[in-house]
Structures
1.
Amino acid sequence: MSDNNAPALIGTSGDSLREAFGKALTNLADEFPKLVVLDADVAGGTGVHHFRKAHPDKFIQFGIAEQNMVAAAGGLAAVGMLPVVTGFAVFLSRAFEQTRLSIAYCKRNAKIVASHPGLDVGPDGGSAQALEDIAAFRAIPGMTVISPADPKEMELATRAMLEFEGPVYMRTGRSAAKRLFGDDHTFEIGKGQILRNGRDVTLVACGVEVARALEAAELLETDGIDARVVNMATIKPIDAKLLKQCAAETGCMVTAEDHNIYGGLGSAVAEAVTQGHPCPIEFVGLNDTFGSSGEPDELAAHYQITAPFIAEAARRAIARKGSLQ
Amino acid sequence: MMTAAKLSTQHSAPTEHDLEAQIAEAARFVRRHTIASIYRATSGHPGGALSCADLLACLFGAELNIWPTAVNDRFRDRFVLSKGHACPALYAIGAYHGFCDKADALNLRRLGSPFQGHPHVRDLPWVETSTGSLGQGFSVALGMAMGMKLQKINARAYALLGDGELQEGQVWEAAMCAAHHKLDNLCAIIDYNKLQSDATNDVIMRLEPLADKWRAFGWMVFEIDGHNIPEILATLHRAASTHERPSVLIAHTVKGKGVPYMEGSPAWHGSVKLTREQSVDALVALGADQHEIKELLDV
């Protein structure tokens, strides 16, 4: 398939996380001589069309066959290659068991990068919106799970993922993402970052919800509530130390994610906080429901994961302070 | 591919007959060892381990370029037991060729033993990848073949599949992919014993016309008797010289081969507990004498 003369992809933005990933990967190819990129006929959607164009000899087409692609990545890693499996999050989930056995159980240095997660997918509808992937891949022993927040962080996370030895699952994103970080931004796997200090409540978010959490903090400020915002780009291993510190210092938390509230970031935060410094936690995410068609912002409002809902959850969390024995 | 000299302990050049006799002896060892380890473990899958014993003996004895002293050599051939439940046979052939200790390999399916109920590469590096979920090992071998080509490593990847395994859709994803990418360094071997867990293939999910399916997917197909050692050796040799196409050996076998009361019965597919009497009967049928039987079952 030629990249020239192709129809413009609807919804494509130079600022989407998938485009940032595809460009970063392309630029890093020469630094990682064993790198190969695996695709299941969605390169135009995952951002790796940039890579295919620049490095066709390191791009492997698997066709629409994710199970074979993911297990083959285990074989490529076994003989010394550095495979990066790319695809849409829902379809990579069908290779969950291949990820489990042929990559994670074998401790292969293979990476899985999933675009089109969550409501951020938009009009393709409920069937295409992965709301379970963080929970599923987080449950695999030894798996690292990352969900960067903006294009700059995606670029840094792509490098960090390639430098890291071991299996990684990383979420990108389909829609235009707000730029949050400048050139001085840093990224380290396993480290959360306080983006805004505050003492009344901590808002912990990942992916596209980080921008919404920052917006929620501004809404809360007008009410005189001083909210802290933490970007938790690594969901596993979670930065338990930072979370316990935030729990101790602010006394309550809200988690926000474009994912089912069961098993994702919120669960990971709760696991860490309840083992260290228990405090009230409110969960913003999909409330055990599938998504539907619509524009991403419309969907986010409909399913109540936008800034006003995060702010409302913060007020609830603050009201519950002191309720724990 | 290696020469016959690998197996020989003689100084003079071995004849083809010597090689075949050595492989037949290795296969007998695999079968006895399989029975003994499953008896000791009180569980395990004997039927499909016995049916592939001759195939494994040929691969390890004359085909695979692998060495116990260099299990990480990047130029080695790769062998994947995609039908991971047949691992008692894999452990036995590995032990026979010095990849692990023979007595250790009898310690199957126990806490702390690297000889798990399905092969695990982090316990035993020479098994190359962890298997036990049907279909996956084949794709992993495909990835290995692909990666070796990309690195211009002139070695081959082999995957031994069960027939029931061919019911997994992933197998046909991999079959399509290997032909598309012209992976002539990939060789699949099908242990076609016609039986699976609950009944015959024909009852559970028909596989025929099997050779036609593989041909239609673009593979070079060889149909052989999977217990005829000269035929297996000759066909592996021919398969290795296939250009721009992957090759598949459809090896017709008998489930439980070598143990009369198991032959052709699906009852011995699954994880079973062998009684002492059953184990002794099997070992006698496999030509073991009283001393060997005592050593295998009791020591």
Note: Chain A touches chain B at residues 36, 60, 62-63, 65, 67-68, 70-81, 83, 97-98, 101-102, 105-107 (CB under 8 Å).
2.
Amino acid sequence: MPQLNPEFFVSQLFWLAVFFTFLFVFLWRVSLPRIATVLEKRQNKIDENLSSAKELQEQAMEIEKKINDQINKAKLETDEKIKETINALQENVSSQLSSLDKDLEKKVSDAEKEILKSKDDQMKNINNEIVNITKLTVGKITDIELSDNELNKVIETHKGNFN
Amino acid sequence: MAAKDSPLKQFEIDPISNIELGGYNISFTNSSFAMLITVLVITLFLTFTVNTRSIIPSRMQLISELMYNFIAQLLSDTVGDNGKRYFPFVFSLFMFVLIGNMVGMIPYQFTFTSHIIVTFALAAVVFIGVTILGFINHGIKFFTFFYIPGVPFYMHPLLIPIEVISYLSRPISLSVRLFANMLAGHTLLKVFAGFVVSMPFFTGVFPLAFIVALTGLEILIAFLQAYVFAILTCLYINDAYHLH
């Protein structure tokens, strides 16, 4: 078994020491710091991006909040405006309605008065007609000439009967 | 044993250039060459893929980052915050074993992790380092690591020696695990490769198919053993911080 031949033990150990020491020092001083720098740089970049993303998100949330506030404010304002307009319209309508009512009432009462007046007039005419017809009828049937006053008296007394 | 066709011949060390220092033979061998390739692959890959240092990584850069995060995660899961300062060491260890194993999967390439002396040296560094760390963190109290609380007192004479032995056998188990896996896998591949040649007619196709499947398994084991080496190192470091 060549492994157990001590002839080259010293040589093996010597070159192992040389090469491994070189490797260790080189990696320790040159290669590993390089890789560590790259990894650190990347980590920093990632952290930076993450923090800026977080910042942007916060800003976005703030803006969204502002927008919502403004929307709410606008909604409230519109609601108030709508209410005001409705109230104003209602007042307007009710005042107009009341004035119309008054007008109508006045017109109705005027018409009633006129009707009453014309009724009276008609009644008077009817009385005159009755007097004339009675006078004429009585004159034709008999020869009695009746005065208007007498006839009027009779009609007055019997007015309730034919009204 | 090291005959011409022996499946163990692949583990033989051939000097490329003979060097001697202070009476010791420190020849640059095929094993040293594999280590050199491994170190070059790791350093060049990790350096050039991250060269642009781009925030959005290229695929190659992503591989480096994944390896980095893999070991960093492993350390933080097992040791916690204390583990950060051992990251370069554990990462180097993991990459060295992993790429060493992978380089060994290249045909005709030497596998230095299949040599017990190499794996034992790595495990010994871990063991000695962790023991020193334990004494630095806890001083003489580190010996209470071998004392298991909540056990009947008459069990201690039995348990304390067991704990001591298991602690001392850590470098052996750590190194032998890696060494044996690599040795067995490569030997098996070689044995079946021998069958491909020696079997008559087309029947050599069957061991060839087996080799293909086994190569996939060996690549998995190459990764797994590197991972096990790294995670056990992490656990030992954790033990040096948290006694029972």
Note: Residues 64 and 222 of chain B are 18 Å apart (CA to CA).
